[in-house]
Automatic annotation (TrEMBL):
Start and end residues of each NlpC/P60 domain: 117-249
The name this protein goes by in its record: C40 family peptidase
Any Pfam family matching the protein: NLPC_P60
Top-rank lineage group of the source organism: Bacteria
InterPro entries per record: NLP_P60_dom (IPR000064), Papain-like_cys_pep_sf (IPR038765), PG_Endopeptidase_C40 (IPR051794)
Similarity remark: Belongs to the peptidase C40 family.
Amino acid sequence: MDVPGIVSIVIATAGAAAQGAGVPPAVVEQAANVADAAVTVVQEQLPAEWIEQLDQQFPEAFVGPPAPPPGKVDGSTTPPAFETTPAPAAVVPPMVGIPGVSAPVTLTFDPRFPRNLDLSRAVVEQAMWAIGLPYQWGGGTLTGPSLGDGSGGAVAGFDCSALVRFAYYVASRGKIVLPRTSQEQFRAGKQITIDQAQPGDLLFGNWQADGANHVAMYLGDNTMIEAPQSGQLVQISAVRSDMIAARFL
C-alpha cells in the first residue's frame, strides 16, 4: 500500500473542498476508504529528507520558513516566500501569502520585545500552511495533520493545541516541543499582557474549571490563526475578549 500517496489524496481533497473546487467522486470515495490507514502515516519525528532540504535551503540560520510536509493543500510542496520590506530597528514587516486569501498578512514586531524574528516568522508561516484543513478533535501530530477521532470527516486535520504544537516543532526543526493540550501549554508559557503579544505568541481562551480550553496563534492587528471547533476549518479570526497571551519564543 502506498501510504504517502494515501495522505496526499486525503489532504488534496481537503484543499479542494476548502477552496471551493470540485472534487471528483472517485477521489472522495478513495479518501474515505483509506482514511483509517492515513492515521499511521505521520510519525513523531522530522523525516530526514526535510532536515536535508532545510539545511540546504537555510545553511546559516532561519531566513524564512521551513518547507511544509508533502501534500500541501494547494498541491505544492513548499510554502510561499516572505517578501520583506526594510524597516527600522527590530520591526520587520514580511508579507505572508495565504492560499485562497487575496490580501497578504503583514507581520509587525515591536522592537521593545526582542525575539528571534526569523523563527517567529517561520512559526507563523508553518501555522498558515494548515489554513483550510478541517478541525479534527485529537487530530494533528508534531509533524502534520491526522484524523483524530474523525469527527471532522475523512480528511486529516488539527485540533487547536495540535496546530500550534506542529507549527512550533517544525519551524524550530524539532527544538521546541510544546505540551499537547491547551491547558498544559498555558501553564508552560510565560504569561504576558495582550498588548505585549507579538506574531507567533499564543493566545488562550474558553476558560473552564480545568483552565484554557482553546489556544490560537497571534498574528498582530487583533488577528489570530486557529483551529476553531468541530465543523470548521483552520482560519484567521479576530482576537476574542477573553484571551490571555503567553510567550514561548
